[in-house]
Amino acid sequence: MQRLPPCWWSLAERVAQAAHPFVLGINGAQGSGKTTLATALQRILAQEYGLQVAVLSMDDVYHTRAHRRWLSEHIHPLLLTRGVPGTHDVALGIELVRRFRAGRHLQLPRFDKASDDRKLESDWLQGPADILILEGWCLGTTAQSEAQLQEPVNELEAQQDENSVWRGYVNDCLSGEYQRWFSQLDELIMLQAPDWETVIDWRLEQEQALIAGSGKGMNRAELKDFMLHYQRLTQYQLESPPERVDWLYELDKTRQVIAVQERKK
Amino acid sequence: MNQDILAELCDEYPQQLRSHFEIQGLCFAVAASPEIPPPQQWMAWALISPDEIDQPLADKLAEPLMNCFKQQLLLMRDELSARVLPKECEYFQGMTFESPLSQWLCGCLLGHRQLEPVWQGAWQKMQQQTPQQAPEAARTLTHTLRLFSTFANVQLAIEQAAEKGNPHLSEQLADIALTLPRALQSYVRLSGSLAAYLPNQFETFTSGEDD
Q1: Contact B21 A91 (CB under 8 A)
Q2: Bridge partners, A247 (sequence order)
Q3: What is the four-CA torsion angle of A80, A83, A87, A90, rounded to 10 degrees?
Q4: ipTM exceeds 0.85, yes or no
C-alpha cells in the first residue's frame, strides 16, 4: 500500500471526504489496472478512513451465456461474445446502484471468465455501504454518430458485420439504458492508455496470468482476434474521452500515471 | 417514454421509491385484482414509506404511475397477460434478489398482499354461490402464489425446499420458470372469474330519491 502513487492517495482522500453514499466510476481500457486500483482504493478507504466500500465491475453483470446465445441467434452472432454494450444486464446494474444508495444489503453478482458465465454464488454485502466503486472499460461512454458507424474499423467488422447490424445494436444499447446507468455515477475517472497496441499488450499480460493460474486462455493471435470486438469503442474513447469524465489519468506503457487532468464541466 | 420517466424517478429517489420493476409488478397485481382499488390507495404502495413522501415527488409520480397501471390493464385486455413480464425479467442460475424477475415478482406479491381482502371477499362469494368451483380456484391461487414467491426470492426458496426434503430445487428452477407466463395468465383468468361474483357497482347503484 505504501508504494501506491500519490495521485491515488489524493483520489482516496477526495472520495472519503465526499458526501456518502458515493458512487465512483473507473473507466479504462482492458488491462489498464482498473481492478487493481479499485481494490487498492477499497483497502485504503477501509483502513485509513473506516469506510465500507463495495466494488462492482461491469463484467460482473454480463448477461448469462444462455442469454447471449439468444441475442446471437436473434440479433447478431457477434453478440455471443461478452463485453460490448448490449451484453450486460443493465437493469441489474441499475438496481444494484439504487439499492446501494438506499443503504440496503447487496448481493453482488460475480462473473467467471473461465466458464464465460455468471457465478452461482454472489458476494453478500451488509448495507449500508459508504462507497460503491463501479469499474468498466466503457463506463461513461456515449454512443457514436451514424457517420462514425459507417466505416468498419477492422476486419471483424468488415467481414462479420457488413451491414452494421452488430455495431448498430451496440450503439443503440449504449445510447439507451446504459446512459441511465452511467448517470448514477457521482464521479468518473478515466485511466487513459497510450494507444490501442498497448491495450492489446496489457490484455495479453492478463491472459498469460490467467493461463498460469487456470491452464486456460488465449494465445496472442486468438487474443488479437478477440480484441477486435472492443477496438471501435476503445479507440473512440482514447481519441475523445467521454464528456462526463471528471478526472483523466494519463498512463504510459508501464501503467505509470504521467499526467492528471481535472476536467471542468 | 412514460416508463422512462418512472424509471428515472425510481433512480432519483431510491430511499423513497421501490424499484422500477417492483412497481411494474405491483401495478400488474393491482390491475389484475378482482376489484381495482382507487388510485390514491394503490399508488401509496409504490412508496417505501408513504408517510415520508414530499409533495413535489408525489406530484411528479402520479402520472407515470397511472400510465404504468394503464399499460398493465392494456396487456390484460388484449389477452397478452403471458407477456406482462418485461423482457428483462428472465430466470438464470445464481439469480439474486436484485434481478429484474425477482423485483417484478416482489412487487406483484406486495400488491397481492395488499389486495388479499378483495380476493378473499370474492372467493367467499364464489363459495356461497357456486361452492363446487371454490376448491379449484383456491388450488390455482395457492399454486400461482407459491410459484411467484419462489422466483421472488430464489435463495430462500432453495433453502426452504431443502428443509422440506427437496435438495434439487435449484436444478429444477429453469424448467419451472418456463411456466411463469402461463401462471400469470391463470392469475388474471382467476381474477376475472372471481370478479363476476362481486356486486357490480352499476347494477347495485340506485339513484337517490328526492328528499
Answers
A1: yes
A2: A189, A262
A3: 170
A4: no
Spell out the alpha helix ranges (H) of chain A.
6-17, 34-49, 65-74, 90-101, 146-150, 155-160, 165-175, 177-182, 196-214, 220-239
pLDDT of residue B51: 81
Tell me how far apart the alpha carbons of residues B155 and B143 are, in angstroms, rounded to a whole number. 19
Domain-by-domain residue ranges, chain B?
2-198
* Minimum Cα–Cα distance from A68: chain B residue: B92
Q: Where are the domains of chain A?
A: 20-262
Structure-derived torsion over alpha carbons of residues A112, A117, A121, A122, reported in degrees to the nearest 10: 80
Contacts of B21 in chain A (CB under 8 A): 91, 95
Query: What own/partner pairs with CB < 8 Å and gap ≥ 24 does A208-214 have?
Result: A210/A113, A210/A114, A214/A114
Superfamily of domain A20-262: P-loop containing nucleotide triphosphate hydrolases (3.40.50.300)
Distance separating alpha carbons of residues A263 and B135, to the nearest angstrom: 67
Q: Encode pLDDT of B39-88 as tens digits.
A: 999 999 999 988 878 888 888 999 999 999 999 998 887 666 667 899 89
